[in-house]
């Protein structure tokens, strides 16, 4: 029989100097790590070190406050808390938090830039659903039919 309690034992691995947990991130690139080349991952990654090259991740990329990236990034979601120089392609979302810096272009359907976040580049937003696109498109014969909501001055 197993008994569980909430009392913390002082001999747990965390108390003995084990590596800190990263939350729900699957991979961590630490502060002292420098990577030159390409990074590929299926999992979410947190970058606290330096990367020069290219990053391609199927999940989320978080550039931590100590992160310094000189690379093009392609991921489902990108969160910038540190510094990035390069272009970003986000499948769903790109976010620059208040301390984040991005020098490069963004291509994503949703972009969030905090008030004191720094961004220098261009943004191309895409991926709106077909319903919104249909509303925005003007029919070819739009000029042939008067708009019932438009007042005509006589």
What does this protein structure show overall?
Strands 1, 2, 3, 4, 5, 6, 7, 8, 9, 10, 11, 12 and 13 form a 13-stranded parallel β-sheet that branches. The chain is built from one helix and 13 strands. The chain starts with 26 loop residues before the first strand and ends in an 18-residue tail after the last helix. It has 154 residues and is mainly β. The protein has a domain at 23-126.
Question: What's the helical proportion of residues?
Answer: under 10%
Uncertain residue ranges: 1-22
Radius of gyration over C-alpha positions, nearest whole angstrom: 23 Å
- What is the strand tally? 13
Which percent band covers the strand fraction? 35-45%
Instruction: Kindly name the structural category.
Output: mainly beta
Largest sheet: 13 strands, parallel
Distance between the termini: 91 Å
Overall pLDDT confidence: 79
Which key features would you list for this structure?
mainly beta; 42% strand; 13-stranded parallel sheet; 13 strands; 5% helix; disordered N terminus; 154 residues
Topology:
Elements: E1 27-29, E2 34-41, E3 45-47, E4 50-57, E5 60-63, E6 68-80, E7 83-85, E8 88-96, E9 101-103, E10 106-107, E11 111-113, E12 118-120, E13 123-124, H1 130-136
Parallel strand pairs: 1-3, 2-4, 3-5, 4-6, 5-6, 6-7, 6-8, 7-9, 8-10, 8-11, 9-12, 10-13
Task: Give a concise summary.
5% of the residues lie in helices and 42% in strands.
């Amino acid at each position: 029989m197993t008994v569980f309690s909430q009392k913390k034992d002082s001999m747990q691995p965390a108390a003995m100097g084990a590596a800190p947990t990263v939350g729900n991130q699957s991979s961590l690139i630490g502060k002292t790590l420098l990577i030159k080349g390409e990074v590929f991952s299926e999992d979410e990654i947190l970058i606290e070190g330096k990367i020069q090259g290219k990053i391609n991740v199927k999940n989320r990329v978080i550039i931590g406050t100590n992160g310094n990236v000189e690379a093009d990034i392609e991921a489902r979601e990108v969160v910038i808390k540190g510094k990035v120089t390069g272009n970003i392609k986000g499948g769903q979302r790109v976010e620059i938090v208040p301390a984040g810096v991005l020098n490069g272009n963004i291509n994503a359907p949703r972009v969030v830039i905090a008030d004191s976040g720094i961004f220098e580049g261009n943004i191309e937003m895409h991926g709106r659903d077909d319903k919104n696109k249909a509303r925005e498109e003007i029919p070819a014969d739009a000029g042939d039919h008067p708009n019932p909501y438009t007042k005509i001055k006589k």
